[in-house]
Specification:
With 243 residues, the protein is α+β, with helices and mostly antiparallel strands. It folds into two domains: 135 residues, no CATH class; 50 residues. The protein is built from seven helices and ten strands. Strands 3, 4, 5, 6 and 7 form a five-stranded antiparallel sheet that branches. The termini are far apart. About 13% of the residues have low confidence.
């Protein structure tokens, strides 16, 4: 009987172990969640064509680009304070709405004067335009735009008529939209409060500015900063390898 027990254990044990290994090998790691507002999430939702959605100047809604253009799979730049800027936008927007309603209720009642209601409403709404002004050009992510018809994918072809897709945050701080930036038209501009921003003037003469943090993104972003400096007439040695 002991020999029969050993035979049954030796025959069933390896099969259980092998089946467990097969199940563990078939298990896949869960994919990391991607925000629906990001440009990369849109390429995942339409995996068949992976087109980029951009907003042209003077147009409120985003439109898809031609089928032969696609976004890079991962951004070359991600803003370091993305979550904080989004939180500040949401808080100031919600505070202005709640403060305006509270001022209206105070003015409708007979407990406080109109001056008190006006002060409460003004203090609640005042942070909103200030925050929106300083964050309207805040760049959340930058993607490279690829032309799939341009083959082979060499360095010369990729840098010829180089175009980026720059993602900016909307007023509510929850959704984002994309804009096209051509590297040939990109320069640097000094703001009145001392910050250096990207300046892009398209073929129609429309000027747009972008707030991008320096020293973020490694050598890829360092190269883009070097191109913007070269177009502006500044030489800091960033494009030393391309000279």
């Amino acid at each position: 009987m002991l020999a029969a027990f050993k035979r049954s254990f030796s025959s069933k044990g390896p099969s259980r172990i092998s089946s467990t290994l097969r199940v563990s090998q078939q298990e896949k790691e869960p994919e990391l969640p991607v925000a629906k507002s990001s440009a990369y999430a849109k390429t995942q939702d339409i995996a068949n064509d992976r087109r980029a959605y951009v907003r042209l100047p003077g147009v409120f809604f985003s439109a898809p680009m031609p089928d032969n253009y696609r976004l890079g799979y991962f951004p070359i730049y991600t803003a370091p304070g993305l979550s904080y800027v989004s939180l500040v936008k949401r808080v100031t927007l919600g505070l202005s709405v709640v403060g305006t309603y509270a001022a209206y209720m105070i003015d409708s009642g007979s407990y406080l004067s109109f001056e008190a209601a006006a002060i409460i409403g003004a203090l609640s709404v005042l942070p909103l335009p200030i925050v929106q002004y300083f964050t309207k050009d805040y760049v959340t992510r930058i993607y490279r735009l690829y032309n799939t018809d341009q083959t082979p994918q060499t360095y010369e072809n990729l840098t010829k008529d180089e175009t980026l897709v720059v993602e900016k945050m909307m007023m509510g701080g929850k959704r984002c939209y994309n804009e096209l930036v051509k590297m040939d038209n990109l320069k640097l501009k000094k703001t009145w409060y001392g910050t250096t921003v990207w300046q892009h003037i398209d073929d129609q003469g429309v000027e747009r500015t972008y707030t991008v943090a320096d020293d973020i993104g490694g050598i890829k972003m360092d190269r883009l900063w070097g191109i913007a400096e070269k177009n502006t007439g500044i030489d800091n040695g960033r494009l030393l390898m391309e000279k």
